[in-house]
Amino acid sequence: MSRDGKTAGRERGSTAMEHPHAVSAYVRRLAVDGVLVSLAVVLSIVERWIPIELLIPVPGVKLGLANVVTLFALYRLSFFDASAVLLVRCLLTALFLGPSSLLFSLSGGALALLAMALLRLGGDRLFSPYGVSMGGAAAHNVGQVAAACLVLRDLSLATTYLPMLLLVGLLTGIPTAAAVVPVLRRLKRI
Amino acid sequence: MNARARRDPERVRREPGRLRKEVRPGDLLVVLAAVALAVALWTASSLSSVRAGGAAVVRDGTVLRTFTAADLAKDATYAFESEGYHYTVRTGGGAIRFEAADCPDKVCVRTGWISHAPQVAACVPGHLLLRVLGDAGDVDVVNR
Amino acid sequence: MQTTRPTEASRRRRALPRAAALALVLALALSAAGFSGCAIEPTYTKYTYQFYGTFDTLVQFVGYAQTQGEFDAYAKQGEQRFVALNKLFDIYHDYEGLNNAKTINDNAGVAPVKVDKELIDLILLAKEWYAKTGGKCDITAGPLTAVWKKYRDLAADDPAKAQVPPQAELAEAASHRGIDKVVVDEAAGTVYLQDGGMALDLGAVAKGFTCEIVAKELEKAGMTSVIVDGGGNIRLVGRPNDGLRKRWGVGIQDPDGNPDKPDDTPLDIVFLHDMSFVTSGDYERFFTVDGVRYCHLVDPDTMQPARYFRAVGIVYPDSGVADFMSTTLFLLPYEQGRALVESIPGMEALWILEGDELRLTDGIKPYMKNAGGGSSSMS
């Protein structure tokens, strides 16, 4: 997917050159992004099986499992890779789940990505992956409601459900981070 | 970003750290900000909340049917169809709810009774919305 | 192939992720637009617009529109017409380049005056309904009402010196009455008062007539859900566009209550649409001498203010006619007035007597909240 040889070069230029089998950074990045996309698609579909709306009866509420991938990409790759993976993931899941899901996954995913990228700007001293993930999940839910608002053409949907969704985001953000943290610890570089 | 993270000496020192130790002060800020926003929104909406003066069934911004306060007081059920799904709406005791639906997620049904404006119960797959309307009051103008 | 320093090739390779990021930001902007897009609610919002300075009273528009801006645009259009028509029907002031009711009075016994069509129509309506109703509401009673106004103003300046006008002064003023001495030439667009001592007083019909004109113009311009409230003259256009109610609710003020206190419960509420509701009451303009109330509604025959009721209300489609009729009914005893109203198709009335006793014609009763169990959801 990503052909971002430059990004790879800038961030890990030396390691790339030290690599025993000098595979092009571009090819490697393409492979990594591809794996992330497939992982994200699977997670998007799996989360459909988890009926979180049973617990929280809010239209369009999702666990946001695919945020795992976005979070990882933000920590170990770049904002560009994260957004590229997100975009392709949304387009691909739309093939599986129908075009109407595109609006929801895109608005939720993009808002989450933006929130998490902003929190990452604060640096690792200020925010751990948990804080970043919680912020991202809350933003993800806000995006979902925005999409529901658009579909149903009613803003009161947002004012009614937003408080609950912000709190729910804090909760669902924790397992996402818990899944990513061990991976980050083991995978220092890709 | 990655480069910065790796240059961060504190982070390097802490690795491999305990999960618990990974939590950072800013995380609390995120929680506090979200809770504060939620509480503010909730307070604002509950302050403006008024007892139902009526209700409306809306599809894609078009009002399909309205219920007056008198309608809401009566125990009755109404049938609606939207996007191929079927819904049963029940009124009674000044409140209204989706009682049954054959939509995929049933979020609308689980929302339960709503009785105060501007509460809504929504079915996203069916593009159907139950909205509680405020009490418009009886008097628009008084002769002088 | 190896990685490394920025080259032209690698810069080109960066283009795709950048484009993807850009696309995502666009998607984000779209979802932000989603939020603002759904701010366009399907239901209309109720707005109010008030202004003073015409017809000696507060005028207000209450109606439903999608935005404040849309509503205000209609309201300002209405306000302009109120200002213009108030000048035209004014009998106290001259306006540069305008022939108005005062110009007609000033030229009584002198010459016909060319005036705008609205003033011609108003006088014709008053003449027509004077004939239909036995002549209680008389726009040529100007000198008589002027005498009462003079004494009312004196009482307002110094209530201790309040007095009733002497009979001789009233008789002289009333002697100039005569609706037939108002000569209207429709073709020429002129009005001529044949008696040099006579004067028009359009107070009993001008406000309602103006409300009717403004309401019709607003409706034509596209404002389909609005109340034109000219201080006691209420003209309802359409139905309340809140997606819920089918009729406007008009509160009937307790004659002893304070109209500016919203908590004051009205005597009753009448639910109407596309209709006028006009009241005449003794509480609008009055003065008191020795504990007796002298209101502004003067019976041209007795030359004294009428004292049958606290207030009379008329329900009728045309606001100008309703205004005329509310004055007429205030000056007629109950039985006589009721017979008159019942002889006119489509007209209903209510009378408020001393002690808040409410009398109603049969046709209005079902639409009253307390008296008939009416509600805003009646079709």
Characterise this structure.
The complex is a heterotrimer of chains A (190), B (144) and C (379). In chain A, 78% of the residues lie in helices and 0% in strands. With 190 residues, chain A is an all-alpha fold. In chain A, helix 2 crosses helix 5 and helix 6 (100-121) packs antiparallel against helix 7 (129-152). Chain B has 144 residues and is of the alpha+beta class. Residues 1-17 of chain B have low confidence and may be disordered. Chain C has 379 residues and is of the alpha+beta class. Chain C has helices spanning 8-13, 15-37, 68-89, 101-106, 117-132, 142-157, 167-174, 206-221, 319-330, 334-342, 369-372, and strands spanning 45-54, 57-65, 113-114, 182-185, 190-193, 226-229, 233-237, 248-252, 268-272, 275-281, 286-289, 292-295, 311-316, 348-353, 357-360. In chain C, strand 6 (226-229) and strand 7 (233-237) form a beta hairpin. The radius of gyration of chain C is 28 Å and the shape is globular. The model of chain C is unreliable at 37-42 (pLDDT under 50). Chains A and B meet through helix 1, helix 4, helix 7 and helix 8 of A and helix 1, helix 4, helix 6, strand 8 and strand 9 of B.
Which features characterize this protein?
heterotrimer; A: 190 residues; mainly alpha; Arp2/3 complex 21 kDa subunit ARPC3; 78% helix; C: 379 residues; alpha+beta; eight-stranded antiparallel β-sheet; three-stranded antiparallel β-sheet; 15 strands; 21% strand; globular
